[in-house]
Amino acid sequence: QSVVWRPTSGTIHTMPVGANEAAQDSFIASVPNGTVTNPSIIVFPAGNTWTRANSINLPSGRNHIIFWGYGAKINNTRTSTSGNNTRDAIIKFSGESSPVHHIKLLGFEIAGSHVNAGTSNAYGYDNGIGIVLSGTTQDIEVADNHVHHTFSDSFEIYGDESELQHALRINLHHNLLAYA
Fold this sequence. Notes:
Elements: E1 11-14, H1 21-30, E2 40-43, E3 49-52, E4 56-58, E5 63-76, E6 89-111, E7 129-143, E8 146-148, E9 155-158, H2 161-164, E10 168-173, E11 176-178
Parallel strand pairs: 1-2, 2-5, 3-5, 4-6, 5-6, 6-7, 6-8, 7-9, 7-10, 8-11
């Protein structure tokens, strides 16, 4: 029998089971920024799958938010288009107009839709990355995730030189990045 961890502090916001993509986006947008002592925790209940064709995008200016996915799966259905170099991702934290900081992405299975991943037929440019941090992202933790079947990188930190000089304290650990 497996043990599913639960957050021990913070304000919990539970993603509605069965929510379609628009409802998921609306729910995430409605979660307020947390604080150092009381982060906002978005819990994706274990044993459930959320299907998406587009990115989960945490826009600029968000902070002290934890995405808690132990036992949950995000299944992306987007397919690559040859030559489309959009740096689109399954999950994207974007600090391009104002910093994103103190964000955690914990315990998800993140499944891309690339059936040829890891083969000689694999291509996909940058429009099917697993997780992207772009712009000024600080104090980010990405841990205990399983990312697979992506069109491009499983993980990418992206931005111009002025943005990346402010990408600080990014902690990536205990992630399984695989093609299958």
